């Protein structure tokens, strides 16, 4: 299956799941929770307060060699938006990709997504735990603070 098939298939609309594709084009669904939705909204507000330019998007599709992955929240610079517009899925990762952790995520899955996003051009990847704590990752590995968002303390939503 291709991503264009997923977004045009009427039977896949309004599902209470996040949908991604694996490397073989198979659909992978993750259940959504209200906690996840609240954290997603908090992240959007945080980014809107701290990053004045660019675009923020939720459920952003990114095409990779391991299928289409969907970041929970992303921030895209004006240059990224100018280059890619609203191409679906994006052929590279926006500068900041955020994954909200849920019980259905394995550590290996999240580590793989961090590597994928960074390998496809993200400058930074954040993961958000149940407690709202944000862990920051760059190409060199875990970071104490973000290079994209100015902050004096560890990030938390």
Automatic annotation (TrEMBL):
Q: Which domain of life is it from?
A: Bacteria
- Residues forming the Putative restriction endonuclease domain are 16-140
One protein family per Pfam: Uma2
UniProt key word ATP-binding: no
- The residue range of the signal peptide is none
- What are the alphabetically sorted keywords of the record? Endonuclease, Hydrolase, Nuclease
- Provide any one GO MF term from the record: endonuclease activity
What protein is this chain from? Uma2 family endonuclease
- In its UniProt entry, the species of origin is given as Thiorhodococcus minor
């Amino acid at each position: 299956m291709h991503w264009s098939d997923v977004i045009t298939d009427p039977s896949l609309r309004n599902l209470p799941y996040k949908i991604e594709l694996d490397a073989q084009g198979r659909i992978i669904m993750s259940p959504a929770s209200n906690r996840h939705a609240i954290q997603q909204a908090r992240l959007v507000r945080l980014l809107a307060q701290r990053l004045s330019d660019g675009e923020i998007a939720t459920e952003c599709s990114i095409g990779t060699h391991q299928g289409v992955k969907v970041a929970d929240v992303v921030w895209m610079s004006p240059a990224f938006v100018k280059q890619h517009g609203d191409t679906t899925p994006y052929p590279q990762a926006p500068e900041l990709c955020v994954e909200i952790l849920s019980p259905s995520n394995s550590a290996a899955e999240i580590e793989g997504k961090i590597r994928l996003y960074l390998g496809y051009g993200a400058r930074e990847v954040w993961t958000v735990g149940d407690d709202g704590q944000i862990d920051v990752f760059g190409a060199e590995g875990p970071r104490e603070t973000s290079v994209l968002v100015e902050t004096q303390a560890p990030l938390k939503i």
